[in-house]
Design goal:
The chain folds into two domains: 2-82 and 258-319, Immunoglobulin-like; 90-197 and 219-242, C8orf32 fold (Roll), CATH 3.10.620.30. The chain has seven helices and 16 strands. It has helices spanning 90-93, 96-104, 122-130, 139-153, 167-173, 178-191, 303-319, and strands spanning 2-17, 19-24, 34-44, 49-53, 59-65, 69-82, 155-156, 175-176, 196-203, 218-225, 231-235, 240-241, 246-252, 261-266, 270-281, 294-298. The longest helix is centred in the C-terminal third of the chain and has 17 residues, at 303-319.
């Protein structure tokens, strides 16, 4: 399935700020599951831009706006061809010993270790006990079971956690957003000695789908390394396995590796961030103009504190979906 993706992010400042430096991760990946056929990134006001790939192979665009400005608009557009969902054979994974042997032959050690947002806690251990999460049965079938249990046990509730919230906030409330679901599942899967990574991207919402995550938003899910099957995607927010509706943009240890935007500015200003995302089949008619699905405002702070504040604000866009 080929999709047309448009991701528009607006930053507004009052009064104007003196300089902004920002990096963007919005270009869909090209790999064994999908091909990014075209991609464009437009910055207004105009800015010189450079592109590099980070440690995990994600495309990162970096730009600097040196003059005073009140508004930044970042518009990313892509056409992505996603392959049909593959059938998963549990027998291909083998038993736990076979999986351990395959993992030992890889270089995915960083996806086995605790990371900034995927850190084991006492509440997580209690959840693991509640789930009877031990190395039992078939590894693939166990992760399919875990994916479904997290969907059942946790409510999807926007604005209940913050971008920098530890997993304990969602564990206590038994609710959160896609970022929280992904971090909880990653931490649990790594404790089973299975490499697991965070995926940011988009989900195409069909009319017949029963997804809990909203249309017009970025999305997050996980991938676990299962030997012969390679990286297998699980979406605990919607109780889905990886399918041709998932468009992958970036992978990392957790959200801190893959925020769609991250940056700083100079000056004291009240700021507002708004985001609009559309994902449609390439042959679908052009949609009507949509209102922002995310609007975040912050009050003015002194210049020294403001740089860190802005970095946090920009990372909110995926968290609030």
């Amino acid at each position: 399935m080929a999709y047309s993706v448009r991701h528009i992010t607006n930053f507004r400042y009052e009064p104007a700020v003196r300089e902004s430096v920002m990096e963007v991760r919005m270009q869909p990946r090209t790999d064994f599951r999908q091909r990014c056929l075209s991609f464009s990134l437009n910055i207004d006001p105009r800015a010189s831009m450079m592109m590099y790939r980070d440690f995990y192979g994600n495309a990162v665009h970096n730009f600097d706006i040196p003059e005073r400005h009140r508004v930044i608009e970042v518009t990313a557009q892509a056409i992505v061809d996603v392959l049909p969902a593959r059938s998963l054979d549990a027998d291909a994974v083998g038993d736990w010993n076979e999986l351990d042997e395959r993992v030992a032959q890889t270089d995915y050690w960083e996806m086995l270790l605790p990371s900034y947002f995927a850190m084991p806690t006492e509440l997580l251990e209690k959840l693991a006990d509640e789930l009877d999460l031990t190395r039992r049965g078939n590894p693939l079938e166990l992760l399919q079971e875990l994916n479904g249990k997290l969907y059942e046990m946790f409510d999807y509730a926007p604005n209940t956690t913050e971008v920098d919230s530890p997993i304990d906030d969602a564990l206590k409330a038994r609710r959160g957003v896609c970022q929280d679901f992904a971090h909880i599942m990653i931490t649990l899967v790594r404790q089973l000695k299975i490499p697991c990574r965070y995926v940011s991207g988009y989900l195409y919402h069909e009319d017949k789908s029963r997804d809990r995550s909203p249309a017009g938003a970025t999305h997050a899910w996980v991938e676990a390394y299962l030997g012969e099957l390679g990286w297998v995607a699980f979406d605990p927010t919607n109780n889905l396995e990886g399918c041709d509706r998932h468009v992958r943009v970036a992978v990392g240890r957790d959200y801190s590796d893959v925020p769609p935007t991250r940056g700083v500015y100079k000056g004291e200003a009240e700021s507002e961030l708004s985001v609009v995302v559309t994902v449609l089949p390439v042959d679908a008619p052009e949609p009507e103009e949509m209102p922002p699905t995310t609007v975040i405002r912050s009050r003015s702070r002194n210049a020294e504190v403001n740089a860190e504040s802005e970095q946090q604000q920009q990372q909110q866009q995926q968290q609030q979906q």
